[in-house]
Specification:
The chain is α/β, with parallel strands linked by helices and 426 residues long. It contains 16 helices and 14 strands.
């Protein structure tokens, strides 16, 4: 018996940029949970074509912007008489929509129910849908099937997950709906075993922790950082700005190997943060940013445009803020009301959703009516902000002023971002 797990291609939006191309961790995890007597293949359409080869069962995981493509792939397989299971964030939020294109829909995290799905399939009793009765606690999580991905096709492959969930619970974020606000962790000894296994595969010792918020549970993070100090690895992850509030905690992160952080600042306007119930204080940003940079940690800041208080001045003001604070890298995105979020419900209620073409829900295209500018102005503003920040002159200036101790990898990243955002067809 053979199962084919597929990750559909991203549309041409922000996440289609090559520098963000990472292997499909959820499918690698499901492959690890598949009974050992079943042959498994993983096809990531972002790096290889879906050939529609013969297989016994197909599993497709999709987010919102890739859902239409997931449905196309599913329909093609089903026309060939091959059953399809759809899962991931989008099918979990809109299972009735997904069910039109699938023999079965998995709602929520599939870790606990994946073996049961295969048993039902073998017994010819596959259900129309499966919903996990409990949120997986991540104990004894089977190591990822890294052997099934084409490592040479990705910008970065050395990643692992230590936790799921995020306590921030922001209005625009779908993490809270899918993974919950309660932090769940893998046992630290299992994390350390996986890191040790990495050292036998790759000589380079930089790892990416693919967590929603590496410091979402500070006591756990402290124990993890203490354990990491002996490994001599270098690591990066997504984090909240909370990591910098306690200088001793931030120093511990640095000593554990932290060299890169992706932090969602979201906006430089306090009313915008209040609008999405983000518990940050803009007036604290500059001091906290400096603490991170003073330790030689590469900082990628994420900013969102399109809040109700934003007008056309917000783009210039945000780029200037990034210049002034010597950001190494930035990600600009359009406020996007993903299905299942409070933002989506609120905008739909007042009739401000402009399209339900899910391919445009890519954090780059405007799919709703902004309050103080047109959708076209919002679109043009974000493109201009990218072009300004990643211009040749801007890169040279920041390379000369940054306090980063190791500039060569950073300069490569900057050059790639510069190329992508100049040549990308938005």
């Amino acid at each position: 018996m053979k199962v084919t797990l597929i990750y559909p291609k991203w549309p041409k939006g922000l996440w289609g940029v090559r520098i963000f191309r990472m292997p499909p961790l959820p499918l690698m995890q499901l492959a690890a949970l598949t009974p050992p007597d079943i042959e498994v293949e993983i096809i990531d359409e972002n790096v290889e074509a879906v050939g529609y080869q013969e297989t016994d069962l197909v599993g497709i995981s999709s987010m919102t912007s890739s859902a239409p493509r997931a449905y196309q792939i599913a329909d093609t397989y089903r026309e060939k008489g091959i059953p399809v299971i759809l899962g991931g964030i989008h099918p979990s939020i809109l299972p009735e929509e997904a069910a039109v294109h699938a023999d079965s829909v998995v709602i929520g995290e599939a870790d606990k129910i994946w073996p049961q799905i295969f048993q039902d399939f073998r017994d010819n009793s596959l259900r129309d849908s499966y919903r996990g009765s409990e949120i997986p606690d991540l104990k004894d999580l089977t190591p990822l099937r890294r052997d099934l991905i084409k490592k040479d096709k990705y910008f970065f492959t050395r990643l692992l997950q230590t936790s799921r969930g995020c306590p921030m619970n922001c209005d625009f974020c779908s993490v809270s709906d899918f993974n919950g606000i309660r932090m769940r962790h893998r046992p630290i000894d299992q994390i350390m075993e996986e890191i040790e296994a990495f050292s036998t595969i790759w000589k380079r010792r930089f790892l990416l922790f693919a967590d929603d918020n590496i410091v979402g549970d500070k006591p756990f993070a402290r124990r993890l950082f203490d354990a990491l100090k002996s490994t001599k690895i270098r690591w990066g992850s997504m984090s909240s700005i909370e990591i910098a509030r306690d200088p001793d905690f931030l120093q511990l992160a640095r000593e554990s190997g932290c060299r890169a952080l992706f932090i969602g600042f979201e906006s430089i306007r306090q009313d915008a943060l209040q609008e999405i119930h983000k518990r940050y204080k803009v007036r604290e940003y500059e001091e906290l940013i400096k603490r991170i940079q003073d330790l030689g940690i590469t900082l990628e800041g994420s900013f969102i445009f399109g809040f109700d208080g934003d007008n056309k001045d917000v783009f210039k003001q945000t780029v200037e803020f990034c210049y002034r604070n010597n950001f190494n890298l930035v990600q600009f995105s359009v406020l996007t009301p993903f299905p299942g979020t409070r933002l989506f419900a609120n905008l739909k209620k007042v009739g401000r959703i402009l399209t339900y073409d899910w391919t445009r829900y890519d954090a780059f295209h405007c799919v709703y009516q902004p309050a103080k500018m047109s959708p076209e102005e919002l679109q043009e503003g974000i493109i201009d902000a990218y072009q300004q920040f990643y211009s040749n002159s801007s890169i040279v200036k920041r390379l000369g002023s940054t306090a980063l101790k190791i500039k060569w990898p950073y300069s490569i990243l900057m050059s790639m971002m510069n190329y992508d955002f100049k040549h990308f067809a938005f």
